[in-house]
Protein 1
Amino acid sequence: MPPVLPRCYLYCCLLCVRLLLLVFTGVCSWHTSGENDTDIGVRNPPVQATVDNFGIKILRYEENSGSISLSADLVSCENLHGVGSFDTTCLLNSNVYLNSSIYALGTGNLEILPHVSIACPIQGCSISFNLSGNVKVGSDATIFAGSVVIAAHSLSVGHNSSINTTSLGGNPPAQTSGTPVGFEGAGGGHGGRGASCLKNEQQDVWGGDVYSWSNLSEPWSYGSKGSGNSVQNPFGGNGGGRVKLIVEEELYLNGSVTAEGGDGGTSGGGGSGGSIIVNAYKLKGLGTISAAGGRGWAGGGGGRISLKCYSIQDVKVTVHGSYFLQLLLPRN
Ligand SMILES: *[C@@H]1O[C@H](CO)[C@@H](O)[C@H](O)[C@H]1NC(C)=O
Ligand SMILES: *[C@@H]1O[C@H](CO)[C@@H](O)[C@H](O)[C@H]1NC(C)=O
Ligand SMILES: *[C@@H]1O[C@H](CO)[C@@H](O)[C@H](O)[C@H]1NC(C)=O
Ligand SMILES: *[C@@H]1O[C@H](CO)[C@@H](O)[C@H](O)[C@H]1NC(C)=O
Ligand SMILES: *[C@@H]1O[C@H](CO)[C@@H](O)[C@H](O)[C@H]1NC(C)=O
Ligand SMILES: *[C@@H]1O[C@H](CO)[C@@H](O)[C@H](O)[C@H]1NC(C)=O
Ligand SMILES: *[C@@H]1O[C@H](CO)[C@@H](O)[C@H](O)[C@H]1NC(C)=O
């Protein structure tokens, strides 16, 4: 059993919403999901919890500086076939396909024009932008990689655009058992346990385990693979990736931010969700934030999401996965 109720106090308001919506499904049914959330000690939490700003406990702000690993190529705007520079404004107006991690640093702005995609579709490949200016992801644009980090003054993510790390997780931390042993097509675990289709009269049987309890407010682990159905086919869906958005002012999210587990198909377990960190002064928009587990023979567990904001306004952001919510005190 994972430890239970480590941060129940954060859920006072959400808990009642959830309890009202609870849907108890069996541990196993085809294409069911693993646990989205173990942190309130409830199995099979509601299909979705919508974050609103009623009754969220206000905690003291603690500075947490996340630094990016630099095992990536430092790129210029030109390297990405863009116009301008990261110290003024870089406009990306054509699709960019990468095959290794990149890191961009500058004092300017970035604008990814509508319908443009920047992708490194390799497990664990990272795309990082650390800019002092504003970042704008146009409507229908996509950033697709194993890890996506954006640090900026403000960030706007347009309608139908996506920051997507689904199924592109690299290796989960060593010494964790998120990927279930055996070939039962069980789901991977991370923020929640993976599901299993095994029946046992005495006790519940679960797939992969929960891990990374130590960093609930700063989750930065990849999700885990589900198990497959044979030695030849040992794994199901892949784990979810990681997203970190550090925004000084406003994050206007009309699109989606996802780190979901991969689909395990009809014989493999779903992968577990990865990790998402959102630190912003103000979070608003009609978007979605999801680190849900992947589907499969048995579903993967949800990943971890940490939202730390001074205000959450007009928000219709829908959060899937185990999450940590911190509303910070306004600055003086
Ligand atoms: C977990 O969340 C997903 C949405 O991403 C939903 O489809 C699924 O039904 C949820 N699982 C449970 C057991 O509620
Ligand atoms: C961005 O760069 C600044 C200065 O180079 C550094 O202090 C900061 O930690 C970086 N942000 C992230 C999210 O890595
Ligand atoms: C990666 O991309 C670079 C340039 O885009 C190319 O020169 C290189 O051959 C590619 N490497 C692999 C392994 O595909
Ligand atoms: C959303 O974006 C996807 C991919 O960019 C595109 O295929 C789809 O048509 C768009 N949907 C809408 C409603 O614009
Ligand atoms: C988000 O959607 C709202 C409502 O459609 C719109 O008013 C706003 O300008 C949009 N913002 C961005 C950044 O796309
Ligand atoms: C993210 O990528 C996955 C894998 O390619 C895809 O199935 C999913 O539809 C994408 N999600 C969004 C919101 O674009
Ligand atoms: C958790 O965060 C702390 C401090 O931010 C860091 O030292 C530690 O390595 C992290 N642990 C994991 C498992 O990521």
Protein 2
Amino acid sequence: MLIMIILNYLSKLGMIVVLTNLGELIDGLGRIHSKGLYHGGLGSESNYVFIGECLKVINIKGDLDEFNTDEDRENKKKEDITDLLGMLDNWFESILAGGKRSWLECQHFFDFVNRAKTLNLDYDVFAKKVACHPFLLEADGRMSLFVEYDRRRNAPTTRQQVAVALTSSSDFANFKSWNSTSTVNNMDSYMRGVYNHRNYSGDVEDLLRYLRNLHHHYHEHGLAAGSMEIVDRGVTTYIRGFLEVLYKNLEI
Ligand SMILES: *[C@@H]1O[C@H](CO)[C@@H](O)[C@H](O)[C@H]1NC(C)=O
Ligand SMILES: *[C@@H]1O[C@H](CO)[C@@H](O)[C@H](O)[C@H]1NC(C)=O
């Protein structure tokens, strides 16, 4: 499976396969845990084997019942996930020409994981936040996140949190003039069409509103784009990294 991931990435085909498969790996670990087992050695490459195109985990070590407290059990499960992600982090770094930095979305994902690890989150929360990261989502899931964050931007209970994040985090500095003439002129025609349909300022709030509307137009009016993958690719090209930065600032 991981070989597929890299082949797909390198050939720039089927990015979707790439992302879902990584998510499946994390889900698979959750299934081991739900059976009352833990692995205990996922930091070591000797516990993985490739069979065909699939990466299999071998040498599952033990039973969570060996531990006396819930806290120990939770820590053990969490350690499995961090070990798996640590292994993948090293692996991506070594296999991608130029390292992870050459694949911005991948870099964002591992930065997120490393930040989440420092926050002492419960196992369930940690696993969910990691598995729901935009890097692991398909096009529709990624674009739907803009809808969710724009909803939070307007909802009374979350408005303040979103406003503070968007205005105070330096992560958004790069997006403050997202609507420059050169960007707008370079956009694919369906993106420009949605842009010209309303008045948008160069503020980050309006960028979020625009992306929400892009998703809305696709679903409500059948956009000229053809598929959500094409919409997602356009967004990833012209407004690269914005979704990942939103996720980082609004999810933890
Ligand atoms: C954009 O704003 C201008 C000035 O406020 C207004 O005249 C125009 O009708 C607006 N356009 C749209 C598409 O809302
Ligand atoms: C970008 O937004 C600013 C307002 O913040 C507006 O004056 C400008 O015309 C917009 N640029 C384009 C290319 O639409």
Protein 3
Amino acid sequence: MAPKINHGEGRTRSSLSLIVVISLCCFFYVLGAWQRSGFGKGDNIALQITKQTECTDMPNLNFDTHHSGLGSLSNLGDSETKTFEPCDDRYTDYTPCQDQNRAMTYPRDNMIYRERHCPPDEEKLYCLIPAPKGYVAPFPWPKSRDYVPYANVPYKSLTVEKAVQNWVHYEGNVFRFPGGGTQFPQGADKYIDQLASVIPIDNGTVRTALDTGCGVASWGAYLFKKNVLAMSFAPRDSHEAQVQFALERGVPAVIGVLGSIKLPYPSRAFDMAHCSRCLIPWGANDGVYMMEVDRVLRPGGYWVLSGPPINWKVNYQVWKRTKEDIEEEQRKIEEIAELLCWEKIYEKAEFAIWRKRINAESCTQRQDEIGVNICETTNSDDVWYKKMEPCINQYPEVGNPEEFAGGEPKPFPQRLNAVPPRISSGSVPGFSVKSYHEDNRLWQKHVKTYKKINDLLDTGRYRNIMDMNAHLGSFAAAIESPKLWVMNVVPTIAEISTLGVIYERGLIGIYHDWCEAFSTYPRTYDLIHANGVFSLYQNKCKMEDILLEMDRILRPEGAVIFRDEVDVLMKVKKMVIGMRWNTKLLDHEDGPLVPEKILVAVKQYWVGGSKNEEQ
Ligand SMILES: *[C@@H]1O[C@H](CO)[C@@H](O)[C@H](O)[C@H]1NC(C)=O
């Protein structure tokens, strides 16, 4: 993949370095003044939350475990508790599987060096990632969409590098996001309204979206207004913390790249995919990138492409491309779209929109076409560390030409609790319509309990929520609210194919193996739900591998809800005390004799710097 240079950036480098120097001077001045005056605006919130998350008001619950045959807590002497030390301050933004030094040992072609490369056991850090000095709780949504405390992501490279492109401004002790972006000169709202004039974004038909190469995820941030949930991804570059900004803003995003490995999403998942100047070479490598988008788009889903090469006739000079070169790029994209049998439904000014056909019947030329390579795989959801191939995934069969292959999901919000097509068709082994309804009822009950345990659950205090072992997504469905979103993780070792069901419910999620680091920055989740995670991973990797990773991705003062067998939870409890977490063990809602229990934990507030370690 030839790296493309954004127009105009190279020439302004030297004057930009001057700006960097000046702004650094200002920065140190401001930082000094600011430190003298105490914390930023988020501090009030942080203080309030410290007080409120003490979990003191649980009138109906007994904090002690009554399960017989177990040692009481006092038996766990301090001598047995292992204490984890803070890592060096230079690891403040450490992302183990997207580490710059390790990346550089991998080939640059096809962006392979930006893909996941996790450290082997002997290179894992067994220490706690420190927050930067002055770290504060983020602003509540929707203010967080527009403002991020500078102390939390103290890097100004984006404000300088993307200054021309109007992504983000630095103003005193906060970053301000104007909702613009290279491709949204009139703002993201206007842009989305334009899309909504072609794509049914307004009536719940389109609910889930994939933003490839998302920048600071302004598109996803503004789609919340339309009740559309976007999964955004961008690579970790050497110095641009785009995805970190997105998550600080309270917008779902992961570190990711379209390189040589399949995307960690199931087939036929997203209602819409989007690329705005995302620098993915769609026409290259026999169309393998578009074929991957085709795999994850549901039948009838939309693909939006804006920026180069669209509208090249007007812009090729601005983009510093030759007419021939960019015309050829567009020609290739059109050719692959045709091969995929996508229907072009719109092209005007800066963007083009294609629609994936609803079934194979609506595409007669494809089957006969010579040179169309159909994927041989029997399981198109088996994607974890699997290489992308230049082949097309087949549609599920349909009974008549009007039918959506694989079934048509209901509009949102009915989708959330309706029986998902994959369940009603019986295509998810181990699950039935009956067990789906039971699962839903069970999680409604559990979430009700969680809200009693922590009465801040519903208030917007927790916006970025991680469900580490999501099954059918029923936890996320039960807790659903416009104030929060849930990243539903289906562990690869669980060997269940429920992630497609989660998308059919209008929720988002990702495949992951918890023996490795998640594709995110430190401190990006406010609340983590770990149901059955440690039973699942018993004898798969060390418990501390998983717990330290949870500590890395959890914000200071963030909360964790574990639900597991009591003996597993006792081990967890012992270990997290050595990680500066406060914990409380609670009985199952059906009483103390049920071996499954709940452990709630709150990560203490502490930041890097050797003087602060005692805090
Ligand atoms: C939503 O809008 C689209 C396009 O206008 C239409 O085809 C579809 O039937 C609508 N769906 C609902 C549920 O109203």
